Amino acid sequence: MCSATPDLMKTPNARDRAPSRRSTPAVAAVAAGSPQAKTAEPMSAVIGNSWKAIVARFSTPSWGRAAWQLGSTLLAYVAAWAVMLLLVDVSWWLVAPMIVLAGGLAVRIFIIFHDCGHGSFFPSRLANDLVGACTGLLTFTPYRAWRAEHAVHHGATGDLDRRGVGDVWTMTVQEYLEASRWRRFAYRISRNPIVLFVIAPFVLFVGLQRFPRRDAAPREKWSVIGTDVALLGLFAAGGALFGWGTFAILQLSVLAVAGAIGVWLFYMQHQFEDAYWERGERWDYVTAALKGSSFLMLPKVLQWFSGNIGFHHIHHLSPRIPNYHLERCHASDPLFQSVRPMTLRSSLKSMGLRLWDEASQKLVGYRHLRQYRASR
């Protein structure tokens, strides 16, 4: 039902595996870990614009790959729902695994929605907007409103002076120590794993995204309103066909699973020990992409469900690359392969990291506060 599709499981050909001939000596130096790569100099100054030619080869969307990915994913999602509805009168214990499966497929649908927001999934802008709006309905996310907020995230990732839109609340050590007791308590609650990965996603997708931002443009506000009206219609139809209680429990359970997985992925993509944060005047786009976005190396089955989003360093370097080209772009040049991968096991370390230490340029845990106070 959800077997791996050719677009994600295809082995990169020799041209894609080989280091790009367009790579400059500086790119090779960074990949080799030379002293040049270890300086504090921004990566844009080290490698220049050579990366633009590399990513340009993978920035053209494919009608065939996009159609296959969309069709196979939606078909698998509908099939998962059909099985759930058949089993619900037999046993909820049998339904539970299907909820997890449907939640995983909803994550993959969100990646398609995400690519449409970047205009990278289809070659056509109209196709991206139509599919983006429809997949946004399935993931409870207003397309145009989310697209505007996500653009801010891409333009400010790793910039300490532009935090607060489309990111995880992150305080520096100094900010935390100078904060009020109430603000510290709120911060600790917000970074608690149960709140962060269970409660917050549900509140975000079910509650907060039902209301437009005060400073949103009219089209973005109408995007929220239109999505809300469509969701009411979806629940009315689902309730009439399958029973209000049954449909609501299944839909919200699937959304809870998808939301938890999605927020966990987003957290791991930007919250790790050697992440990149800098003040505005020193912030560098290329460094923020390659060092401030993780390369999350997942097992193939999880890579399929997450739509290759683990290659997040590539995505932030060039959001115009469709998800089905990310892996081949990563494999095409030593510059990208030099990024240290994060595995599921090593990602567990990030769970205990809470604050950004500007002195050591690392994300640290609360225990680091004792050392910080002692050194003052």
Name the descriptors:
mainly alpha; 3-stranded mixed β-sheet; two-stranded parallel sheet; 5 strands; 61% helix; disordered N terminus
Which helices and strands appear, and what pairs or packs with what?
Blueprint: H1 6-9, H2 14-17, H3 25-32, H4 43-47, H5 50-56, H6 63-87, H7 92-117, H8 125-138, H9 143-156, E1 171-172, H10 173-178, H11 181-190, H12 193-207, H13 218-242, H14 244-270, H15 285-292, E2 295-296, H16 300-305, H17 312-317, H18 326-330, H19 334-337, E3 341-342, H20 344-347, E4 355-357, E5 362-364, H21 368-375
Parallel strand pairs: 1-4, 2-3
Antiparallel strand pairs: 4-5
Helix pairs in contact: 6-7, 7-8, 7-14, 9-13, 12-14, 13-14
Descriptive notes:
The chain is mainly alpha-helical and 376 residues long. 61% of the residues lie in helices and 3% in strands. It is built from 21 helices and 5 strands. The chain has a 3-stranded mixed sheet with strand order 1-4-5. The chain has a two-stranded parallel ribbon with strand order 2-3. A hairpin with a 4-residue loop joins strand 4 (355-357) and strand 5. Helix 9 packs across helix 13. The radius of gyration is 21 Å and the shape is globular. Mean pLDDT is 88; it is low at 1-39.
C-alpha termini separation: 59 Å
Strand numbers in spatial order across the main sheet: 1-4-5
Q: In which range does the helix fraction lie?
A: 55-70%
Overall shape: it is globular
Please state the structural category.
mainly alpha
Q: Please report which band the strand proportion falls in: under 5%, 5-15%, 15-25%, 25-35%, 35-45% or over 45%.
A: under 5%
Which ranges are low-confidence, i.e. pLDDT below 50, for 5 or more consecutive residues? 1-39
Any idea what the radius of gyration is? 21 Å
Kindly state the number of beta strands: 5
- Outline the biggest β-sheet: 3 strands, mixed
- Provide the residue-averaged pLDDT: 88
The total count of helices amounts to 21
Order of helices and strands: HHHHHHHHHEHHHHHHEHHHHEHEEH
